[in-house]
Specification:
mainly alpha; globular; two-stranded parallel sheet; single chain
């Protein structure tokens, strides 16, 4: 998710926007991650790890439960954003990433002392 905005901007700069699809595979754990990926330009996301966790815990029922939960989280997030369809999700629905590394946080803390 952290580099997705840069990837879509690079495609736009190269004149490939709309002619190239971007898929995010990895890092998706919640429905809100799906919203963020779509807002940043992804066409679709991979759900490997959550699906495998569900499979490992309860087999097919676990997979179905994971898909249901992700779908519900996605619907709630879209409702809160006021986006009735996936096509309505745009980059205006996400804020730029903030450097939350420990060194950045420590520097911020020291600057306030």
């Amino acid at each position: 998710l952290l580099v997705l905005r840069e990837v879509t901007e690079a495609l736009r700069s190269a004149g490939l926007e709309g002619r190239t699809e971007v898929y995010l595979d990895g890092g998706v754990r919640r429905g809100t991650d799906v919203v963020k990926a779509l807002a940043l330009g992804a066409r679709a996301v991979g759900l490997g790890r959550p699906i495998l966790h569900g499979l490992g815990v309860r087999g097919q029922q676990g997979v179905e439960r994971v898909v249901h939960l992700l779908g519900e989280e996605l619907r709630v997030a879209m409702s809160l954003l006021g986006t009735p369809t996936l096509a309505d999700i745009t980059s205006s629905h996400v804020c730029p990433a903030v450097d939350s590394s420990s060194s950045a946080m420590l520097a911020l803390f020291r600057s306030k002392m």
